[in-house]
Design goal:
The complex is a heterodimer of chains A (320) and B (298).
Chain A: H1 2-26, H2 28-50, H3 74-81, H4 84-116, H5 121-131, H6 138-149, H7 155-162, H8 177-202, H9 206-214, H10 219-244, H11 251-258, H12 265-268, H13 271-280, H14 285-313
Chain B: H1 11-38, H2 42-48, H3 60-67, H4 70-101, H5 108-120, H6 125-135, H7 153-164, H8 168-176, H9 181-192, H10 194-209, H11 213-218, H12 227-236, H13 238-252, H14 261-297
Helix pairs in contact in B: 1-14, 3-13, 3-14, 4-7, 4-10, 7-10, 10-14, 12-13, 12-14, 13-14
The chains are: A mainly alpha (320), B mainly alpha (298).
Chain lengths: 320, 298
């Protein structure tokens, strides 16, 4: 009896595989169109994955990928024995948490504020202006930050002198930077995020607000009892997606702002900038390969977890 | 959104308007201050700091930039790889998104997975660095700005979703008339998706314009620096700004007491930010629609 079940399953699966292979031939024009894209990801996305072996080697550019001596988990050991790993990992999580929290609150605030104010010229102007910072690159923002934070001469410095407060040496005091980076990150991203929330708010059924108005609800009550709860799935999904990225630091932002100013590393060095700076200086390829691998693996696991959670909230959330 | 009854203009609404204006101003003010400061004379910058209404105006910083070689060279390089990169990226994105949008492919889910996986997991910076420097020999080549960034998988999925929203009757009609896939792609899909192409093209262009990591990692040749990387060097190394400022100083040394090093930095930033900020009012509606489409598709 078991025999016939096995023989029934095998032909079906062989047929499916044959069908898939046959498809390559029948639809060959479409597959040809895919060749450039596939070639690209093969070289630039999957190619480096082969290089993951560096994490297990005492890598030497001369001996190359397959000539360098194999050292097992030694690179990981060295990283964890040093002082840096706790600091850069903490910074990565802490800064990301700050960014996510402040960004979500700011985006929601702007979105609700602008929708409540209705459709006027002012609102449309503000709506346009608010997404402008998102298209300004981090090096430029770093230049603008210099205008504000430079001590002496900077705008903040002048303000503090006027109010007889002791000036802050931004570029030599690491403790002010988590908040500073949070403010800059929010400045750049809040407007962009607000647009996404505004699109969702547009989709809320107007009749609910009508019913509430007839029942005598105030604007604030309507915001907190209707708008925010209706936005909860969207907020939750965006939050989960952001948390999925918690392991990735933002090299673009942090390196543009901090550069090689080692005074600020203690609060701003994240995993990515740590690896980036080492690669720039051409040191510790093996160790940095190990760090990068860990980051990718943990990040992957986290993203999978968060995607799965997001699907539970809204089954429609699926890329395909 | 339910608006207050006409005629009722309470304190609450006034406050809300004020906050909105404040937010808008907070977004604009830093950019404006940068602009104004770049036109401030170096002397008044050093004495009075960054004022919204400067004591003394000067275009010496801009003159310095255009006389010396550094900024125009970086501009040339950046414009080249932005234009070429955007065109190539749009082409490859377009070609890849179309087959994936078609239900005809039996292996569709598998191929999508091949692309999607690259968004979840990567080899990391070190293997990429080895790949680009040792195997692809792209160091100190202008193509290192373009090739690794050719296809953005997220952009490709957005375009793919857009193609799927085209009614399938159009595809069917064309296929029964015997049109080849290529003809369908360029004859039907292309004209219908111009707004999506424009939006994604803009996203790619802004991405290319902002590239600097490639310069930091792979360029020892200074004449191949991108504008953004030049900005970073101006920020971190005052001597670069000073050498540019010397050229302008030589021009005006009888009227000016100090070389415009600080203002040169600001002026370079303005000039780099320029195209995006200038084009922004005209292009912003593309960004907004692109965002909302992307958001709704998740």
């Amino acid at each position: 009896m078991a025999d016939s079940k096995k023989t029934k399953r095998a032909p079906r699966e062989r047929k499916r595989l044959a069908g898939r292979l046959k498809d390559l031939v029948t639809n060959w024009p479409l597959y040809i169109l895919l060749v450039p894209g596939l070639l690209f990801v093969l070289i630039f996305s999957y190619g480096p994955m082969v290089g993951i072996v560096i994490a297990f080697e005492d890598f030497n550019p001369i001996q190359g990928l397959f000539g360098s001596p194999f050292v097992g988990f030694q690179n990981f050991q060295i990283f964890f024995e040093g002082q840096q790993w706790l600091q850069v990992t903490f910074n990565t999580f802490f800064l990301n948490a700050l960014f996510i929290a402040s960004g979500t609150v700011a985006s929601l605030f702007i979105a609700i504020l602008l929708t409540e104010l209705g459709k006027s010229v002012l609102v449309r102007v503000v709506q346009t202006v608010v997404i402008l910072p998102n298209f300004i690159s981090w090096p430029i923002i770093a230049m603008i930050a210099l205008v504000f934070l430079q001590s002496p001469q900077g705008v903040v410095d002048e303000l503090m002198t006027r109010f007889h407060l002791p000036p802050t040496q931004f570029y030599s005091d690491p403790n002010v930077w988590p908040v500073t980076l949070m403010i800059l990150n929010t400045w750049k991203g809040a407007g962009f995020g607000a647009i996404i929330y505004m699109a969702s708010i547009m989709g809320i059924d107007k009749e609910m607000y009508e019913a509430a108005r007839i029942d005598g609800a105030t604007r604030m009550q309507m915001i907190f009892r209707i708008t925010l709860p209706m936005l909860r799935p969207m907020i939750a999904i965006l939050l989960l997606l952001s948390v999925g990225g918690m392991f990735k630091g933002n090299t673009d932002m942090i390196y543009s702002m901090v550069g090689n100013n080692s005074l600020l590393y203690s609060t701003t060095n994240v995993i990515d900038t740590y690896v980036f700076r080492n690669v720039l200086n051409g040191i510790g390829f093996g160790i940095n390969g190990a760090v990068g691998l860990m980051q990718s693996l943990l990040g992957f696991a986290l993203v999978l977890l968060m995607n799965w959670l997001a699907k539970k909230i809204d089954p429609d959330y699926a890329l395909f | 959104m339910v608006v207050l009854e006409k005629g009722k203009f309470g304190v609450g609404k006034l406050l809300a308007y004020l906050v909105a204006i404040l937010i808008g101003w907070a977004c604009l003010y830093p950019v404006l201050l940068l602009l104004i400061s770049s036109f401030t004379s170096e002397g008044s910058l050093l004495r009075y700091g960054y004022q919204f209404i400067p004591h003394k105006l000067s275009v010496l910083a801009y003159q310095s930039i255009f006389i010396s070689n550094t900024v125009p060279q970086a501009y040339l390089v950046t414009v080249f790889f932005t234009v070429v990169g955007t065109i190539l990226s749009l082409l490859i994105t377009f070609l890849t998104a179309y087959p994936l949008s078609s239900n005809k492919l039996k292996n569709r889910q598998w191929v999508i997975m091949i692309f999607y996986f690259t968004m979840l997991f990567s080899g990391g910076l070190v293997p990429t660095y080895i790949l680009i420097t040792q195997y692809l020999q792209l160091a100190n080549s202008i193509w290192v700005y373009i090739f690794p960034s050719l296809l953005n998988v997220w952009n490709m999925f957005v375009m793919m979703n857009y193609f799927r929203s085209i009614p399938s009757e159009l595809y069917e009609a064309a296929r029964t008339e015997g049109a080849s896939e290529l003809r369908i792609l360029f004859g039907i899909v292309l004209p219908l998706s111009l707004p999506a192409i424009a939006t994604i093209g803009l996203f790619y262009a802004v991405g290319y314009w902002g590239e600097w990591q490639q310069a930091a990692l792979y360029m020892t040749n200074e004449s191949l620096w991108s504008l953004q990387f030049l900005i970073m060097n101006l920020l971190q190394n005052i001597s670069i700004a000073q050498s540019i400022a010397q050229a302008g100083f030589a021009l005006a040394s009888n009227t000016v007491s100090v070389a415009p090093a600080d203002t040169v930095r600001l002026a370079t930033a303005v000039v780099t930010m320029g195209p995006i900020v200038l084009l922004f009012p005209f292009l912003q509606r593309f960004f907004v629609t692109g965002l909302t489409v992307g958001a709704i598709k998740g």
